[in-house]
Fold these 2 entries.
Entry 1:
Amino acid sequence: MSTVYAYAANSATEPLAKTTITRREVGPHDVAFDIHFAGICHSDIHTVKGEWGTPNYPVVAGHEIAGVVTEVGAEVTKYKVGDHVGVGCFVDSCRECDNCKAGLEQYCTGSGMIGTYNATGRDGTPTYGGYSGAIVVDENYVLRIPDSIPLDKAAPLLCAGVTLFSPLRHWNAGPGKKIAVIGLGGLGHMGVKLAHAMGAHVTVLSQSLKKMEDGLRLGADEYYATSDPDTFRKLRGNFDLILNTVSANLDLGAYLGLLAVDGTLVELGMPEHAMEVPPFPLAGMRRSLSGSMIGGIPETQEMLDFCAEHDVTPEIEIIQPDYINEAYERVLASDVRYRFVIDTASLRG
Ligand SMILES: [Zn+2]
Ligand SMILES: [Zn+2]
């Protein structure tokens, strides 16, 4: 076992504070790596604040993790010391069910995916995430970060990147497809960049036109304010795919109306409360309402390789660990362009 520094939440109301945690001994199939950067995902905040149920405190959040391998177990074949690697939202799963076998570990029906934090690992100990100096993970749940992607920019790809990549691939985003992204935040801005890189026609639907210049620079072809009722008249029946990255409740009927025949609206933002689905806009154009959650290990690797090939990386603001609590406040106020990434050097000490 090794002891590393971490930033932990001890309750829903206290600020995160520096502490120490232990990491397990490196087993035969394990990869140990120094964490260099960890992204701050909105899910981290929901979890530590107990908004998705009471977590198992202390919580060391962080599931957008990038670093450099320091040790590998005797049986490890995929990685060696010095490799650039990452870990996303889960560190294990049952490995036996049909979904695991198909590389859809995020939809594991056996044990369920074992979260990178606030879960219990195979060895019975709690899992702790990326707001820390180092981590030990089974090689099958470790991703290779291509050399051309700097580690700080690689971190947010492990959750925000694949959350958008997976539905874009599943619903065949590409040339000739009209895609809309609702919300230009941490998730949305990756949606714009990825859909653009795939060759699709990309429209941002944002509450206001405040970030329009950014949106167009990041690859959007069009940009509309959803506070303007004209937007919904003008874009009626327009899109093949709409990706909703907003975690607030929306008027689903209005957005479904923007889909073309056979179009699909995909929920990615996970609002806390249920939303009403009016049947007429669904049936009228044979539209679908769906959802999607991160991506499996093979698809996450495919996403990283795609981002390297197409030079797609997130817009980030690097912070020190002692700024995490302020960063949380700023995420809640949508005051970040577009992802906070923690430089964890001081936690490696
Ligand atoms: Zn996340
Ligand atoms: Zn499984």
Entry 2:
Amino acid sequence: MKLYYAPDTCSLSPHIVLREQGIEFELVKVDNRRKLTADGRDFLTINPKGYVAALELDDGKILTEGPAILQYLADLRPESGLAPRADSWERVRLQEWLNFITSEIHAGLAPLFNNMLPEEAKSIFREKLFRRFSFLQETLSTNAYLMGASFSVADAYLFTVLGWCKFFAIELNNWPALLAYWEKISARPAVRAALRAEENV
Ligand SMILES: N[C@@H](CCC(=O)N[C@@H](CS)C(=O)NCC(=O)O)C(=O)O
């Protein structure tokens, strides 16, 4: 299995999950600007949508879209407990979280990376994002993780996108439960190993 990734992006979440589950995989770095892989291939031939993450299975199939990749990986090792069973009510709850993260937090932070947007526009996006953070603050004041007592693929994803706050001087300590949650996840051995690997490859 190969994970196409770029440092400081959403591909960190499947990377964390691969390590949490002890799955063997190869990391392939992508230059997201030039759409080239580190081994010199045109990344658009791998993911025509032109973005990470992309997962290449051993039979050559390519899977894209973070929430789909995360659930696929979780189901490879159900015993790791990173996602509830596929036919359960709790699985729908997980999908609710994954969709919230992708559409409200990931997509909510994305405009802040855009240098063409004026500051006034960015402040509208920030305000909306902060309302979502307040909702997360409430949830995480009573829950250790998004799904309750245990870490799931949704936490790997939320941890990843919250990591971008540092690029925009967004201080997570305005939402203390969110900050404590982020710090707790950053101490997980799989998370530390993924971050180290992305720095070094
Ligand atoms: N819908 C995709 C979005 C993935 C995405 O936003 N990837 C970003 C990095 S976080 C990227 O590679 N952007 C490069 C580009 O769009 O050119 C998913 O959820 O996986």
